[in-house]
Specification:
This protein is of the alpha+beta class. The chain is 29% helix and 19% strand. The structure holds zinc ion (ZN).
Length: 140
């Protein structure tokens, strides 16, 4: 635990699913309100700091987040990214992309090229995401 780390001191978003290894949160980023983050439960700096089996389990959760977004939203593309330059605590961004989103086809961290696509992230959608993640990860 590092007190100055935002992912150690807070959930980092609305928790949709959680187990002892990690949590999957709806990050509510300004231009990408359906961005999911898969955040390791412990303050680990790099993927290669994790035992191999734990890496594999974490990636199962990343892929479940990707599948849930694909099934419910049918985006143009799914982006997976693990940077950690700002918050060096292992986490993956799982980002549904559309041709008319603010940054497409550039990375979401680039300068916006157009106004954001309007996306409604209401409770029914969040409930469907929670249910889908729970189903996909029920045997994980
Ligand atoms: Zn941390």
């Amino acid at each position: 635990m590092t007190v100055s780390c935002v992912f150690c001191s807070s959930d980092g978003g609305e928790v949709l699913w959680r187990d002892e290894l990690c949590r999957i949160v709806l990050a509510r980023e300004e231009h990408h309100p359906l961005l999911l983050r898969v955040i390791h439960a412990r303050h680990v700096r790099e993927m290669s700091d994790l035992p191999a089996a734990e890496r594999a389990r974490l990636m199962e959760r990343v892929f479940a987040a990707e599948l849930a977004l694909r099934e419910l939203l049918a985006p143009e593309k799914l982006n997976l990214a693990s940077l950690g330059n700002v918050v060096p605590h292992v986490h993956w961004h799982v980002v549904p992309r559309w041709k008319d989103d603010a940054h497409f086809p550039s990375p979401i961290w680039s300068a916006p090229e157009r106004p954001s696509r309007s996306l409604v992230v209401d409770e029914p959608l969040r409930a469907r995401l929670r249910e889908r993640l729970a189903t996909l990860l029920s045997s994980a």
